[in-house]
Amino acid sequence: MVPELSKNQAFMILNALPQVGPITLNRLLQAFGGDPRAVLTAEAAELESVRGVGPAFSASIAGWRQHFDLPQEEARMSAHRVVFVPTMEDGYPPLLREIHDPPIGLYRKGNYLCDRPSVAIVGSRRTTLYGQTVAKKLGEELARMGYCVASGLARGIDTAAHEGALSAGGRTVAVLGNGIDLIYPPENLALYRQIEEQGAVLTEFPFARRADRQSFAMRNRIVAGMSVALIVVESDVDGGSMITAKFAADQGRIVFAVPGRIDQPTSAGCHQLIRDGAVLLTRVDDVVSELSYLSGMRPQPIPGNAARGVPGPDPGSDGWSDEERGVLGCFSGGALLGIDELAFLLGRPVASVAVTLMRLELRRRLVKRADGRYESVGGD
Q1: 67, 81, 112, 212: most buried by Cβ count inside 10 Å?
Q2: Confidence class for position 79, pLDDT limits 50, 70, 90
Q3: What's domain 311-376's architecture?
């Protein structure tokens, strides 16, 4: 053993070694009783008896000090308020342990412990207004239902999904394809900080590790692996989201795809996924319906007036808030009303009315028509 190293430190060292992938690391840990310190102190012959470990790997493990500055890494973690979470510790996403190549540990920034089911929302960086709107709405509605929204902090769909979850006062996790101290894209700095406060930022990569094609693919397997389902909102046929969808399918997750215009390249990947067997998604109820058999994966909805002052219902004895009763009253006699008309009739801000309308849609008391107006659809 190496008495000066804690088990957590040894996990960090193994995680940072070059040329040693997660599959090989997990085999090594299994061969040495799950103790990373035993791996670090093993003889080359012992290491090379494990399938996939050759002389280059064993030399990398023996000379780990040449590749990894542990004191510097710990100083950075302290300065950035980051912790390292090995596979079997609380705070490591439970479903991620089940994939065939889980990271042996994750760097985490933020206090969220990944203790509720997550749904991943991914898509193109070069997105349309339609795609951004859909992703944001799905993120918000899933967060209100109690799901954590997982994505990759990228431009476009990822950003919209995170913003939707945050707007509902819900949980969201950003998985990075680089070190946790590098914020990419840089314009998402404010979003990164919001996610840190309200959810968590995760990565398997050490500090200062820059992103590349391989690291983004590794990030995608985590996004898919930690989630009960994956939603692709917009993607071309060669987009990174298609790789994430393949990871999700291989990992046994439910894959959803949002349809788009047939002449829009950003939806071509989604249409291909639907042809190949992904579930066509047109509203959040489609997700709830598909996940209904996973009773243990259904979280408790968050209160509408949760964190950050998000408005929500204050239910009366009949189960409806004053705001909801006021909106429903406007539809007596079969009225068809738009959001601006409702705001005028009720004397309330449009943004406040929009939140109430969304709650009533989720409770299936109102439906939005193709012309943008709403109509009542009967009892609860």
Answers
A1: 112
A2: very high
A3: Orthogonal Bundle (1.10)
